Amino acid sequence: MPFLLTPLIVVFYSNSILGGEISQRENSDRESNFEKKRKRELLKMNLGFVVGVFGILILSHAAYSTIQYRGLLKIMEEEFSRPPMNVVLELIIGVALCLWAALTLPGKFLSIHPDSDENRAVSLPDNSEFMIFNHRGRLFPPQIDMKF
Amino acid sequence: MVTKTEETQLNQLENQVENGGGGVWEYLSLVRKLKVRRSEIVLKHGLSILNDPGKRSALGPDEWTLYEQVAIAAMDCQSLNVAQNCIKVLKKKFPDSKRVGKLEALLLEAKGMWEEAEKAYTSLLEDNPLDQVIHKRKVAMAKAQGKPSLAIEHLNKYLEVFMADHDAWRELAEIYVSLQMYKQAAFCYEELILTQPTLPLYHLAYADVLYTIGGLENLIAARKYYAATIDLTGGKSTRALLGICLCGSAIAQLSKGRNKEDKDMAAPELQSLAATALEREYKQKAPAKLNLLSSALRSLKIS
């Protein structure tokens, strides 16, 4: 079906735009691990989106085939027990694709354990609103050049 | 509240920045987000960005936040000229800004001109009587001048209005502890635990204060809170494990001459469990000090 090609075109176009944007924003700093991770995440999300669209299309195609099959059975005046095997196979494939897309699209899942490394509070924020400058470090100014 | 992953990320970025790798802007944003106090590094690398006009224009509108961050770091490192210059630039860009007004008053504080700073803060308060940051600065000024009782008075008045401010409760508890008024400090920590019961650091601090006050009921309560800390951190808090061992031996010592039911309060199984967990952790992280730990634990159990 030709309209299946449109999500692919959308994906490639958006990838090229993203690539252009990121190369423009790169300053003199070397590209760090965080930017690489973010790019990888975006690509994975795009792939998940495409797979999800495919899965929904396959499911709707299976639904249309089942409706057509029931119409056929009504003409032949037979009982409708279950859809034919190829439609069942299509259903299973569609469900698997949608499942994979639903798990990949939201991105990183958060941890719920209170003592996992993501949620464990190692230190409280240093109260910078109550910060005083009258400490012992006052007598040791750092040796750096003045501004301007 | 800094989590473990954020702490490792911060240390990694810090090493990268200090050894000449890139990622300075990310480090500065992370320091701003986590509200940690790393003034020297922020000053050094922030200044290097600000002195380079190419990098400065690459920041766009974030340039002014960087000016503010570098100004505060400069005040902390006692480079008052740098701070003055940053504030001058900010004042040129935003002439009638309250935020810049607060920075100027902060600079007066850093210079040690307390009366002028007081006047500046009162004038800022007239325009905006419910500004939290200015009230907190008045408390900080009282603390810096060495008048903790005045600081406590201001902070109590502030907390009557803004009861949900965790940082203020914590600050009050720390001032009380520094003045050895432990019962009031315990009250402050109780307030903190009520509002944020899932944060194990508050339970730990409360247990420390209870242990310091002493007396049998307080020691039993302290042991309960140490146990709660261990529960909430999944056993990763060394201080809480040590706290249980110390509480156990102190309780055993206090209830020496009592009858049977009080002796059951000693709970020797809990103490031995904590001791084994401690030895396991030391074997993993600091095997050289394991002998020291074992002898200390043995002396605790004997007494």
Number of strands of chain A: 1
What structural class results from the helix and strand content of chain A? mainly alpha
Q: What low-confidence regions of chain B span 5 or more consecutive residues with pLDDT below 50?
A: none
Percent helix range of chain A:
55-70%
Q: Main β-sheet of chain A, in a few words?
A: none
Residue share in helices of chain B? over 70%
The Cα radius of gyration of chain A reads: 28 Å
Assembly category:
heterodimer
| Secondary-structure element string of chain A | HHHE
Strand content of chain A: under 5%
Question: Number of helix segments of chain B?
Answer: 18
C-alpha termini separation of chain A: 65 Å
Question: What gross morphology of chain B would you assign?
Answer: globular
Q: Main beta sheet of chain B: strand number and arrangement?
A: none
User: What gross morphology of chain A would you assign?
Assistant: rod-shaped
Subcellular location (chain B): Endoplasmic reticulum membrane
Main location (chain B): endoplasmic reticulum
Pfam families (chain B): TPR_EMC2
Family (chain B): Belongs to the EMC2 family.
